[in-house]
Amino acid sequence: MRFSSPLVAFLLLLTTSACGDDDGGEADAAVDATVDAARSDAGFDAGPPCLLECESGLTCCLGADGEPACVDTESDLANCGRCGSTCGPDRGTACVEGLCECGRVAIGCEGSRGSICCPVREDRPEPYCANLLTDGANCGGCGDTCDALRSDSCQAGECVCGDSRAPCGDDEHCCADFGGASSSCVDVTTNRENCGACGRRCRAGEDCASGVCRSRTDAGADAGTDAGADAGIDGGIDAGGV
User: Fold this and answer.
1) What are 59's strand-pairing partners?
2) Number of domains making up the chain
3) What does pLDDT average to over the chain?
């Protein structure tokens, strides 16, 4: 059987076009996916677009105002060491050679309550890192010192005495229990084992009154005198008809 030339040419054209579409579609899809992925990665890694060409030693990062800028990552507080690494007041006070410094701490603080950069104070001439959760000199806040008479530790940012989970009251001191294994709040105005202060023990025959150890004879005499005086005053008033 013989085919005319136009018919053969038409069939060949259809076959070639079909094969080209199948292969080309898969190839185009693969190329497009690769290009899209490359663009995505490049945009992420390169950071924000910088309209200005940065000089040698400068890097294009987001500045303190949120706009792209050429900055020195060796000293820039908003981009310390790399783009986006902020050396804020909680982490440090200066960016030196790409490291966020807090006083003498070259690597800076974490910027959390467990490690925060505190400013200078009377007994600390330089900024310093502190743990606000456990540091009795900075309990809950920089410079918030626990009263040593009313507490013995800082737990979760609160001054506490022993297992009480709270500081002691006005007339109480945080004193070590027998053996020193734990502490508790005691009323130092009446406690014979801690009269006036922790560990100040009254001797045998003495009681603790108003934070002072007194012999029981003196205490009884004072009590009798006071009682007599009160009785006399009351009796006089009653006799007067008031």
Assistant:
1) 71
2) 1
3) 75
